[in-house]
């Protein structure tokens, strides 16, 4: 059973991501180290004792659709209500709507626990977080007054309705349409697919945020508007009114996250209780500026998906380590022993487990650092733009790396279990099934790589990424200066990786500047991995420097630097190739 | 739906694995190029039109256990009987027992098709193949007379009963016991787990080959004997007699291959019809020499598991390519186009598909080459030992590389499908679920790596592996001498990879010679991957040299050499490290 790694989470937040320094500066409001520890402890307790025991049953039963209603697995409604009663939904919510205004980095860390205990549970409330962000930034006073309190408390949940069958990653092809009404409201018609938690019985109302197109809208992404469409209309006194004309037509039968209903939503079929066809909606932000509103939510939504991968990866590592310590097979290589050895003593099993641990630790550091950058971008100060760009730069990596790691680590976790890993009751297989969606949704990891290379590298003329790489290099210099033998060849290897990162970065910037986008795109995924491995390994070293008394930190940073990090040079070769071999080889796909 | 890549399979068999030359020498009996093509075409037709349509249903219903009986999914018994009626079970079987005595390489190629159409279907008959091999090599005349004809025709199926709960990969810990009876038979008592096709309704009898221990047997693997235990005893006239005292107690609920029943078998519970407790068994080979009999089957059993990974990988590649050609998203990067482009035109999708194709092609070449080596090791001639050692050398790679590739390619296949890949109806997810077991069973891929490094490299004092590497280098020399620009930097990259392969090989041999097994084991998995990538890429180049008119072959070999192959240098660094960083890091697992 999952046990939240509370100590490691707190350590990474404080000493790697930057929260310690922020607390010392008094930039985190009421949040002190003691309060932080208390919150993490309590979240860990809830994740371990309340959520984790529901995960296997939730997977087995799954969400069930019948007559346009979705029933969640037994006990999940109660679980959700215990969770919101604990105040967990409003951690980052605005204080004037009942939230606690805590940092995003802390929230991300806590979401690691919810997702580690059950990704199908953890995913739901992140959609509500997105709805809160959108309303807070772009909603009218009336909308905010009606919806924010309940979305912050979790009494109602939110959804994001983007995807349509013909428009997956490509929002310019959206067809859902919105018609203006004289009272300032709109009527929405169309279908949306892959809507996470689009329908369920956890809450009495569901607040959909829906992208649609007005009749006179320009073509493409500049003609998209954002609307709020509640499942039930809300009366002036806040009580629930008529059933709106939006229904769940079906849910998907998926590889994993079975307890997370993935809905096809139909707007405007004329079967609501409003007396007319068309789902009643309210504009959020300006007409045709829906995409800008979406971007408000994008950084943190992507971070929270990264956190899903991280949570599952941690759960998989822990489960595999537990198994490897118990399971005995073969003779030990430890001198003087004759008994069967726990398989953790076999070199290849230890290699798998250390690979898992290094990847999880790096992914955690990158994700939390991105959360910290988001927090600082929201604080007043002259460095606000610096941090906003830092957050933008880190977001594609914070989404892609932990989600790739989620799949890799869950798959290694099965391998460590041997035949038992393939048996569903063991639980290792579920983690792979759950993890497999995270590299896909909220922008596939390939799209993250395109975003990183074409939009994030050019920020401030390349100075944003250069400053970040320089910071990473400072860590390496500190490793060198520490003269600690337990870092092995870490600094040499990290230095070489940073050189490769710098070289590929400059080359990509050059290509982008010259309009040679094709060359830049071909190596985008390789670059994203190169960057993430390098940054992640630097962060492991940073942690080891901050906590010199724990020898395992330096040993793990060294293991990564000496065995996983050398990959960056192959990745660098792929980037520098500029897609020449890729272009030549497309003939093999004809 | 799966379409067997008959042309590619035939090409690889003939021009890469060596069958063309063997046919020219007349070393393949009646097998001529025309007959080869006819057999492959017919197998492809059966795989495409008979097996593939049953795969999704087989996955959904799965094998069902009730009252110690296992019911296969609807239609599977008929499917199996159409398959054996087509003579497919006896391809490699001994001619004097009704088999066709065809080469293992051809059989392996055909099994790629069965597994590509449905791995759950393809796996069953490979157990029968193992039973045929064991009986042919070690069975008494009486046993051969009673069982071989029916196992060769497929009227009865075979199983391999090795694993016990306390003894997974470690056969020395087996506890199943065998008692001698005065009539020369034995009685077997004990439990076995993870027995593939241990019980089912495809055939009226099932022939179990069971490892067990005699009361006076030495401890460890030198005290294991092999027994034949039929589900139903066979009367003197060949008709079926009493139900033997062996029953299926349960089947596993697994991640994938749902239509392949994975059974817990109980021997000697006293509920058969023989009038006494203990399953009646007959010794195969000599007492306490059971492991030697197992080794007879091991090379080809491992090859056939590799073929499972290959078949699934090919199916996943094909499905993803079909989707990527149809699915339109985003603007094309092709100049002059404005419509939405098929996603295959996007660089990152093309990169994924080419990676899949290169990995599948390399895995195919390695597996078929191993099959060819097995064939030549069975032919008379002074080079018999050479080929036996070549087969031994290639076996761990032929098992591990295609099965790792199966998981990697199936996972990439899901990614290419985007959100649709996570929906079970698409079928991409099933391929990952099925593929995930192959790196585990028949010796985990970690165990293959240990076998490669500790037992295969030292063959003939290292000359076996050196001769093989020299052959790979000859391919590179031919690439160089071809002066073809479409090979790009292939020969340079391949040359560098071979240098790394040679250096790591010599280092490992040195360590083994000095008894520094720990250093050798730590890098075994990295070495196995390094070796496989290098050999696989050389084989792609060999195919391109043999078929200069098809530009896609050289382009694919080049793509692999320039983007995937550079990994070998990171892997080489890991091997040369000798486990130093691994040993230092084990503190992080405490």
TrEMBL record, chains A, B:
> Does the record carry Flavoprotein as a key word?
yes
> Which EC class does it fall in?
oxidoreductase
- Kindly list the GO molecular function terms attached to this UniProt entry: acyl-CoA dehydrogenase activity; flavin adenine dinucleotide binding
What EC identifiers does the entry list? 1.3.99.41
Task: Tell me where in this chain the Acetyl-CoA dehydrogenase-like C-terminal domain is found.
Answer: 473-583
Transmembrane feature ranges? none
The reactions it catalyses are: 3-(methylsulfanyl)propanoyl-CoA + oxidized [electron-transfer flavoprotein] + H(+) = 3-(methylsulfanyl)acryloyl-CoA + reduced [electron-transfer flavoprotein]
Keywords in alphabetical order, please. FAD, Flavoprotein, Oxidoreductase
Can you give the residue ranges of the Acyl-CoA dehydrogenase/oxidase N-terminal domain?
Answer: 37-155
Name the source's superkingdom: Bacteria
Record's keyword annotation contains Phosphoprotein = no
* Start and end residues of each Acyl-CoA oxidase/dehydrogenase middle domain: 160-267
List, alphabetically, the SUPFAM superfamilies matched: Acyl-CoA dehydrogenase C-terminal domain-like (SSF47203), Acyl-CoA dehydrogenase NM domain-like (SSF56645)
Gene3D superfamilies in UniProt: Acyl-CoA dehydrogenase/oxidase, N-terminal domain, Butyryl-CoA Dehydrogenase, subunit A, domain 2, Butyryl-CoA Dehydrogenase, subunit A, domain 3
Protein role: Involved in the assimilation of dimethylsulphoniopropionate (DMSP), an important compound in the fixation of carbon in marine phytoplankton, by mediating the conversion of 3-(methylthio)propanoyl-CoA (MMPA-CoA) to 3-(methylthio)acryloyl-CoA (MTA-CoA).
> Protein name, please?
3-methylmercaptopropionyl-CoA dehydrogenase
